[in-house]
Input
Amino acid sequence: MSMLAFELERPRDLASAVESLGRHGSRAMLKAGGTDVIVWMHKHAVQPEVLVDLSEVPELGGISFYPHRGIKIGAMATVNQVGTHEDARVHYGALVDACLSHSDPLIRNKATVVGNVCAAVPSGDLIPAFSVYEAVMHVYGPGGERDIAFADFITGPRKNSLAPGEIVVSATLPMPSGRSAACYIKLGRRNALDLAQVGVACLAMQGSKGAEYRLAYGAVSPRPVRAAEAEDILAGSESPDEALLDRAAKAAAAAVNPITDVRAGREYRLSMVEELTRRAVSICAERLTGRESR
Amino acid sequence: MKQTVTRNGVGAWTTRKYDHEKAVGTLAFTDDLRFGPELLHARAFRSTKAHAEIVSIDVSEAMKVKGVVKVVVGENFVHRFGLYLHDRTPLAVGKVRYVGEPVALVVAETEEAAEEGMLKVTAKYRDLPPVFDPIKAATDNSVLVHPELETYEHVPFITPFPGTNIANWFRIRRGDVEKAFAESKYVVEEAVNCPQIAHGFLEPHCCICKEELSTGNLTIWSTAQSAFALREIIATGLGYPLAKIRVIAPPIGGGFGGKAGMTVEALCLAGAMDPDIKGRPVKLYIPREEVMLTSWVRQAYIAKIKLGIDADGKITAIKNNFYFDTGISAEYGANPVRSAGYSSTGCYYIPNVWTDSYAVYTNKPFGGAYRGFGLPELMGAMEVVIDIAARKIGMDPIEFRLKNMLRTGLPTCTGMPMNAHSLDTIVEKIVDRMKLKEKEPAKRKGWVRGKGFALALKAPAMPADASSSAIVKILGDGGVEVLAATMDMGQGAYTAYAQIASEELGIPIEKIRCYYPDTQSHPYDWQTVASRSCWSMGMAVKRAATDAREKLLALYAEFWQTDPETITIEHGIVKCKAKGKAEPIDVQVQNGFFMPSGKFVGGPIIGSGTFVPPDVVNPDPETGQSPKSVVHFTVGAVGVDVEVDPATGAVEVNKVSAGYDIGKAVSPMNVRGQIEGGTVQGISAGLMEAMYYDEHGKLLTPDFTDYKIATSMDVPGEVDAFWEETPEELSPYGNRGVAEHSMISPAPAINNALFDALGIRIHTYPTGRERVYKAIQEKKRGETDIWEYPYALEQSYKNAVKEWK
Ligand SMILES: Cc1cc2nc3c(=O)[nH]c(=O)nc-3n(C[C@H](O)[C@H](O)[C@H](O)COP(=O)(O)OP(=O)(O)OC[C@H]3O[C@@H](n4cnc5c(N)ncnc54)[C@H](O)[C@@H]3O)c2cc1C
Output
């Protein structure tokens, strides 16, 4: 398999990028880091005639953090930039864990966080983190700017709700309220460079009614999935005991719908959803009641 | 008296040849060669069916693609190739036999055009029932993968069974096993299985072929381990004289057996020899996703082993049934089956032996040479069964092994006496270093720890008459060129040969060069396989260097009017103490010496050396018996210490220790590299490697997205590698083979360690996380063993929940 001939366009600003997309219509695809789209072109899974490379668009770079609004991740921010960002490390544990679980240091220098989410592959490591932080996607396109709630962003395997010609400019992950702790646990077939068999993101926040939990899962359903019932079971409990953890874990397994494929069987994935839920919740609860918020 | 002095001779720790070029990135691999605008590019169109008649192939749309020159199909190039059995055509002829089999070759001016043309070829098929399960294929002849088997040529030491799917049936018949079983106190019968695995070399196959228009001479540049074997296989397949074929083998990026024999070259020749194309070079680069579909992988196997043991714990009889799944070709794969067969008592002395080792055709990509060549398969099963047996009879598994060890002089299963070795010392060291007799608590919270052990053994697996030859040239400035057609694919052969030349010539290693193989300049060598090179080619290089030295000493002796015995070569300086002479080697060794007689004598000094094992006898086809079936066995052992997370099935290897009796470390740096590398490769194979198929025979793990190999994060930071040096009699420096051995037994050692940790026996490789987790669940249900049949796994895709689509 090798790549077929294609044209590369490298717009210098956002307006030209959108213009480019408009001009070529469905013949064109966007490239951010290219670690997904180039591989897919190589395998003929997608065959754009034009590749619009976003790497020279200045509006898309950068990561900014405002304690009230949260962290804003530019479309061209790489997985390593986000994973090593100081404010992210302090306030967005699940995001940072997810970044550092992604591929290896070389790929992380190219791959973008937004590209990971836009690719909408069910095993995408950043997706569960975006779910628990209830990210907002800032989009620019022929119709101007708009925001899409992350819950509405991914519509199926490799499908997102962008309209033709739209580009994700950045994404904001709102600041969790109060004290918080979060983590992402990924299970793969080996310790590095693997796609998740199961990924679990957990965010615990200290609210007025006690601890509040958010749980989201990767690689176990066609769309991002939150385990609402499990979150309810855990709500209010700062140090959930085994029995509560088990109930939450069972509820989480009921919320997901994994397939059997070459990476793992459905049964194993279900068992691991339970196990990783117990672990992720315990870690967050411990951190929440401890000194450090993360 | 030794007449040479050097610092970098045999046994010295030296830096390695070609490492610098590799690190800088300037060493040119096959894909880096440039041929200018003449070059055409070839791309294979592949079968989507596992077994079907080809009704028609439509190339008309492909021919319309700009730049496509020709589409070659099987009927255009009907030649059968093979090392041991001519069962392989480069393009499917009449029938396809596996998903991924090349059906047409698109040749075009550019890579893109070839790719586009390939996408436009279509074929119509008439489905035939496929067979994927080797046991079914071996025992039920309703589907024949090669109905034409009886027409295929083969070497005499392979026994195919026409009318069946058995491409080779190797037997050992020694003593009376049934009687011994009847008389033994314990009988243990166990089975182990393992799917196909792949080499995972970094550099995919690449080949450029050109037919010279006026003469028909062929030149082949290829990622080949064995330039000469490749030439011979091509010559035989085409009916060409050897001298009309030149094979150039540039440096290769890893081989592990995957580039031995003839791999992709005939497919490339189907393009380059086409009447519409010949005269122009054609390049065939196999993309990563198609490597496992284009050439061989390691055969899958199912091994059943039955042991009879007496009250003392002595093994009295063994009965082995090995089914090797060789896919659609056994041209090379017939021989690992034989190799496992003639080693089928492992490291043990067992008086009564019955072995049936089969190569079985199925409709899958094919099996062939892979590091270890039948022995990781054999030992993967045997060392597990030995462990089970020891525990069943209530004996410590290590004591059980020591008690039954194949000690020096005892007969192997072919009746040949075992060579000298110090396996017991190695066992002792590993037991000690790994604290194998101590239970230690897990280092990680909530995990369980276990330790495991396994022995390893292997002989070079090759025809009885596999030979080597070398040329050593002394240059006019005291430099040396060694022509030895071994492929240095990272194992460090050229460093070892430079050390040998340095040892024999007294010339520093920096002044010695060894070149990559070219059949036009190099003398013959059979193959770079079988852990044979440093031994067999080492013999030839030593002889060639000795020959060159003797020629040089004779010339200096005449020049200085003294006896050759009074002359030494020390660090490149030729000395004669008696005559008070000390001169660096200079241009006289090239142009001749002006002798006291008033005449020029000499001229360029060329030493030559050849070697063929003198006394190997192929095993008898009926009984497998032979006074000397192989040249020697290298033995060793592996100890591992693992931990398991019972909640996920994750396995971490805490520590591994591996030792081999290699006779002599000619190049210790490389010996260490081989032991470390093979150990890691063995751990990887044991823990995660597998090729999986769907129910239609489509490979689900064609690239590294899903064919997983251990990363540095998955293996212990350090491999405790060591060796013993019990000299081999017939050997350049007492050395034996070592390159493959380290890959053989890490997997069974891990398997045994997992049993120690978990108390349930896993009979199926690899022992990945999901399988280990399943085993833990089975244990909770009271099971003692878990066996997952890989062919049932293929079936499970049928039932897989695929609701997302
Ligand atoms: C060796 C390797 C290892 C990998 N390991 C992992 C892993 O561990 N975990 C994991 O989740 N993934 C992994 N991946 C997959 C992939 O690289 C990641 O998902 C990556 O984060 C994608 O980012 P990118 O910038 O490279 O995306 P690109 O390939 O540039 O784009 C991905 C998709 O998103 C679209 N897109 C990109 N940017 C935008 C935008 N701003 N607006 C709208 N659409 C856009 C593109 O058109 C394309 O369809 C791996 C890939 C490789 C090659």
